[in-house]
Amino acid sequence: MLKYLIIFEKTETGYSAYVPDLPGCIATGKTKPVVEKHIVEAIQFHLEGMKEENIKFPLNRTDAETFVFAV
Length: 71
Hints:
Oligomer: single chain
Structural class: alpha+beta
CATH architecture: 2-Layer Sandwich
Helix content: 25-40%
Strand content: 15-25%
């Protein structure tokens, strides 16, 4: 089973998402649920292409944490 970190960002026109461990794997959408659907599809498409080309899947090398600061 593969596990990849997905980064979501709010943009001026909606949301974007990317996968740091899969360069070039990105998605956009007007709402976060839409971009979530699109990034899952993009990851699946990306991995299928890698499989067809006999390219090893990259390991998960990124991690994320959210810290809260009182200022």
